[in-house]
Every structure is written in C-alpha cells, then in structure tokens.
C-alpha cells in the first residue's frame, strides 16, 4: 500500500483523526499539546491519533496529501479541518464541539 493510500484509509476509517507529534499522553510539541487539549475540552472521546515522529513516511507525505504544511493536522469525517490555530478558533466559537458531536454520531 502506498503512503497516500494509507493516509486516505486512516482519514476515511475514523471519524476524527489527529496527525500529531507525539501522543495525547506525551505530546512532543506545544501545538500538538494545545490541539489535544482543545479536542478534549470540546468533548472528543477517545482520540485516534497518529504520531508522525514514529511514521516518517506519513510525516513526509501528509503535507502533500492535505496541502497543509505543518503539524498537527486534524481531520473530521475525512475532511482536513486544519492545525492548532484553527482548532483553537473553532473551540472558542463552539463550532468544534458541534463538529465532534456530529462526527461521533455519523
């Protein structure tokens, strides 16, 4: 399986996917840490995450797949939502909680 196919399978196989540096328990960068906190605050249950530090092929190819250069990258229902700043803005507006609730129902 090519890396882009694996990324697509991960994104389509889970309602919420976070590609991040580290894990939710041990984030390896501040942006990943803040994104995990935002998701938890918004009511995300068990997070499905991929540690790009342990997956160099995904780390190298995801920016081309998503057309987004940095990490973390949040996908909800197969769609790129964005990185840390966008996730925090959505949290503040209340939109993130709504999106997560819809994704977990689907």
UniProtKB/TrEMBL annotation:
Residues 16-81 form the Glutaredoxin domain. Gene3D superfamilies: Glutaredoxin (3.40.30.10). It holds the Pfam family Glutaredoxin. It comes from Cognatiluteimonas weifangensis. This is Glutaredoxin. Belongs to the glutaredoxin family. Monothiol subfamily. CDD domains: GRX_PICOT_like (cd03028). The gene is grxD. One of its GO terms (molecular function) is 2 iron, 2 sulfur cluster binding. The keyword 4Fe-4S does not apply. [2Fe-2S] cluster binds at residue 29. Keywords: 2Fe-2S, Iron, Iron-sulfur, Metal-binding, Redox-active center. Glutathione binds at residues 21, 59, 71, 84-85.
């Amino acid at each position: 399986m090519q890396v882009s196919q694996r990324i697509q399978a991960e994104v389509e196989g889970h309602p919420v996917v976070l590609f991040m540096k580290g894990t939710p328990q041990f984030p390896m960068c501040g942006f990943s840490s803040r994104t995990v906190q935002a998701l938890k605050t918004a009511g995300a249950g068990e997070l499905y995450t991929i540690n790009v530090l342990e997956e160099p092929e995904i780390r190298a190819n995801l920016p081309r797949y998503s057309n987004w250069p940095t990490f973390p990258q949040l996908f909800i229902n197969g769609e790129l939502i964005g990185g840390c700043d966008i996730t925090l803005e959505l949290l503040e507006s209340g939109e993130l909680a709504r999106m997560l609730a819809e994704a977990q129902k689907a």
